Amino acid sequence: MKNKLQTCLASIREKTDFKPEIALILGSGLGDYADGIQIETTVDYSEIEGFPVSTVTGHKGRFVFGYVGEVPVVIMQGRVHYYEGYPMTDVVLPTRLMGLLGAKKLILTNAAGGINEHFRPGDFMMITDHIATGVPSPLIGPNLEELGPRFPDMSEVYSRRIQDVIREAASDCGISLREGVYVQLTGPNYETPAEVKMCKIWGGDAVGMSTACEAVAARHMGMEIGGISCITNLAAGISKEKLDHKEVQETADRVSKDFKRLVTKIIETM
Ligand code: HPA
Description:
This protein is α/β, with parallel strands linked by helices. Helix content is about 30%, strand content about 25%. Helix 4 (about 160-175) packs across helix 8.
């Protein structure tokens, strides 16, 4: 794994010496954001030796290097999901890579199903904490000592400072913001109503198939993290409707303008 990370890092460094301050991972349907920034260069995942390539439709597979305002950023346009069949260490490899490229801060975004009965499709939920126990920890296996400790603390995965930045950014943009706990399950099937009930009893407000594992790997490296879920649908059993990936994309499209304004404001002020 160490070698794979270093191979990928060297492969990117052959193409660019860009040094990002902030890393951003774009969720399902939110990938457009990267097209609107001041792009310096892009690197397709397929150009990176040893890199796990995403297979989901609607996910582009590339790193975008550029500026949001004055801030140098690296954006993952399309992430790698556990349900694609990669080992968890590969799933978080891009996150680690962005950390090694120099990003000390990470913003995670995703599309998620709403569990909290006050949530509506199209809401933004700031992630205050997560439950990652539905997937294997990305830290299982020999510890990469040069990245972080064997038993890293997870008592503040989503930085309180960045949470304040996100609240303030939402308020400045006039965008209403929900807050809650994100539960990661493996997917790719959506949950059963019983599973959603379980997530609710666990203390979850939203459920999805990504993000928490990336947050664990990033926190292990000491990155400062913020997270936002776009509630694209009500989770199974909360709504009477059947779930469909199309609905997820349609909702993400509908709110993409607000999403762009919010994320830009967050990056500029964090
Ligand atoms: N469940 C899991 N993942 C999701 C959902 C959902 O309802 N909506 C978008 N991603």
